[in-house]
Write a structure and sequence with these properties.
The protein is an alpha/beta fold and about 190 residues long. It has a single domain, classed as Type I PLP-dependent aspartate aminotransferase-like (Major domain) (Aspartate Aminotransferase, domain 2), CATH 3.40.640. It is built from 5 helices and 4 strands, in the order βαβββαααα. The chain has a 4-stranded mixed sheet, with helices on both faces. Strand 1, helix 1 and strand 2 form a beta-alpha-beta unit. The termini are far apart.
């Protein structure tokens, strides 16, 4: 991905915090990062949006890196994997984690799946030769993932969508909105 230039893609409330794919200038683009369910807005990308993003990327030889770590923590609408979309395995790599769904935050266990070329490129730049999780953490993560029944989340996380929006005490609208960017971080002296 050497030579790529970082460009910000606006996520505006009037577009449900989804980028307008048709407005993106693909000149020089190599990777597009998407994060849905989105943190901090709570926005969920529907299949139509994901299809548009995959078509855009495939037609322009762009790799989509899709952060789906909050897949089981959506407000109302269930989150989708970008890999559900036909053609996504040609141009997408999806990242997920056991941190959110299985309360394994400190364990730092995650995974990437998707386009063989993209996953292969990741393996070339970062293997587990210099770091790695203790075997008991790996076994716990494998066990947690084995609790899925098809696409149905494990019993412990099944009600998470309801609990996240209803059980927090925050009004639903407040948890889904981020009207203003956070102020820039300042160095403490």
């Amino acid at each position: 991905m050497s030579g790529g230039k970082a460009l910000a893609i606006p996520l505006l409330e009037e577009h449900q915090f989804l980028p307008e794919i048709g407005e993106i200038d693909p000149a020089g683009a190599k990777i597009m990062y998407l994060n849905y369910p989105n943190n901090p807005t709570g926005a969920v990308a529907g299949r139509g949006f994901l299809r548009e993003a995959v078509d855009f990327a495939r037609d322009r030889n762009i790799v989509i890196c899709y952060d789906n770590a909050y897949s089981e923590m959506s407000f109302g609408e269930a989150a989708h994997s970008i890999l559900e979309i036909p053609g996504a395995l040609d141009c997408c790599v999806e990242f997920n984690s056991c941190s959110k769904t299985f309360n394994m935050t400190g364990a730092r266990i995650g995974f990437a799946v998707g386009a063989a070329d993209a996953v292969g490129a990741l393996a070339k730049v970062k293997s587990q030769m210099d770091s790695g999780l203790p075997p008991y953490v790996q076994r716990a993560g494998a066990y947690a993932l084995s609790l899925y029944k098809g696409r149905e989340p494990p019993a412990g996380s099944r009600g998470m969508r309801k609990r996240t929006s209803k059980g927090t005490g925050f009004p639903r609208a407040r948890t889904q909105r981020c009207r203003y960017p956070l102020p820039a971080a300042r160095t403490l002296r």
